[in-house]
Amino acid sequence: MTEEILLEHARSYDTDFLMYTGQFCGYCSAAKRLLSSKEFSFTEISFDEQPDLRKPVVEATGHRTVPVILDIRGEQPVFIGGFDQLQPYLRQSS
Q: Whole-structure pTM over 0.90, yes or no?
């Protein structure tokens, strides 16, 4: 059930990446800057604005910190991880 939320969100947005974030998160800001600098589009969903999403996203991904980043360019969303995983992921997928 929890993975269905991620799939639903991934299908709902016509962007390259989906990012769950938190307020005052330096890594979230860095991830947004990195994606923008590479000219990727992204949709940001804030756990501060939608706190009920945090638990199902953590359960679906196992990732407890923000940002939680997914590549939604393909048919199936790909869970990347956080900012530290985003940098090498973008190098590999270039």
A: yes
Cite the DSSP H helix spans in the chain.
2-12, 26-37, 54-61, 83-92
Which whole-number Å values give the CA distances from 67 to 1, 6, 91, in the listed order? 21, 14, 19
Which of 94, 47, 92, 57 is closest to 77 using CA atoms?
A: 57
Contact 67, 47 (CB under 8 A): no
Q: Quick check: helix, strand or coil at residue 43?
A: strand
Burial of 79 (0-12, 13-18, 19+ CB in 10 A): middle
Residues of the chain predicted below pLDDT 50: none
Distance CA 20, CA 30 (A): 13
- Cα–Cα dist 69/58, whole Å: 12
- The pLDDT value given to residue 94: 65
Phi, psi angles (nearest 5°) of residue 67: -80, 160
